């Protein structure tokens, strides 16, 4: 037990540059307190003391502002930064090295008593206020931007933003030597990207109109290139509108 607590404290130092001392982390980090309370509740849940497990979880919510269902499965080196308003549902599965920020919801989307909450693979980072809903999987080392709403599976090493969430890029390793990449501000803008593609499409159309009276042989070569560009840009716009990102 004590070795696990030491690991949790080490994780806090690795993930939060504001951590100054072990005493501060022990006494002033509600995310850690919520994880420790969850472990007690989860143990009771596994031994089928369901009401008592829920009561412990409820007490933990009152103390920390973080609600973790005792039936959830959580791996090692899990870190909750700030934490207020986080909700983790019953059938949620969380891998190793995952980080959640305040206001995150890992919620269900069905009344049926089956797997109905998300699975977060190793090294995932979920930004403040994001909602991940349903029995979907967020691939390892992926990052979900603040206030995004994710409703479908996300491949590993992806960056996801928006409502509904869409893949807008690929990530390299988000965790190195236990420390996460905190460059949350370096997110692409998918709306700007699709507008750029639309402008390219319009330029191609204009160039075709301008070339109606050009030399026939040159015109054929140009038409072939323009057709290829237009098909490519059309496909990118369709991908964006379909929620697949750019």
Provide an overview of this structure.
- The protein is 41% helix and 17% strand.
- It has 246 residues and is of the alpha/beta class.
- It has two domains: 2-180, 3 Solenoid (UDP N-Acetylglucosamine Acyltransferase, domain 1), CATH 2.160.10; 190-241.
- Strands 3-6-9-12-14-15 form a six-stranded mixed beta sheet. Strands 1-4-7-10-13 form a five-stranded parallel beta sheet. A four-stranded parallel beta sheet has the order 2-5-8-11, with no helix packed on it.
- Strand 16 and strand 17 (179-180) form a beta hairpin.
- It is elongated, with a radius of gyration of 24 Å.
Task: Describe, in short, the structure shown.
The protein is an alpha/beta fold. The protein has helices at 2-15, 22-28, 30-46, 50-64, 190-210, 216-241; strands at 67-68, 73-74, 79-81, 87-88, 93-94, 99-101, 105-107, 119-120, 125-126, 131-133, 137-138, 143-144, 149-150, 158-161, 166-170, 175-176, 179-180.
CATH superfamily of the largest domain: Hexapeptide repeat proteins
Model regions low in confidence, pLDDT < 50 over at least 5 residues: none
Counted up, domains total 2
Secondary-structure element string: HHHHEEEEEEEEEEEEEEEEEHH
Could you please say which CATH topology of the largest domain applies here? Answer: UDP N-Acetylglucosamine Acyltransferase, domain 1
The rough form would be described as elongated
Question: Taking all residues together, what is the mean pLDDT?
Answer: 84
* CA gyration radius, whole angstroms: 24 Å
Please identify, by name, the CATH architecture of the largest domain: 3 Solenoid
